[in-house]
Design goal:
This protein is α+β, with helices and mostly antiparallel strands. The protein is built from 1 helix and 3 strands; from the N terminus they run αβββ.
Length: 62
């Protein structure tokens, strides 16, 4: 009986260990390919008179 509990525990750890490893590899590949890290533009464009510079939003008068 004791041997069966040990075998069950090892099977549990191996199954979830492989699953976690596969998830980590997939995430690493997606990050490497840039899917999880999209490029951020250096400037943004809004309607006329509204501009954004760094983290500030301002409204132009004219």
């Amino acid at each position: 009986m004791r041997m069966r509990k040990g075998q069950t525990a090892m099977e549990y750890l191996m199954t979830y260990g492989w699953a976690i490893l596969i998830i980590m590899v997939v995430l690493a590949v997606l990050f490497y390919l840039g899917v999880l890290n999209p490029p951020i533009p250096s400037q943004c464009t809004f309607a006329a008179g509204v501009s954004c510079i760094t983290n500030k939003l301002s409204v132009g008068t004219g």
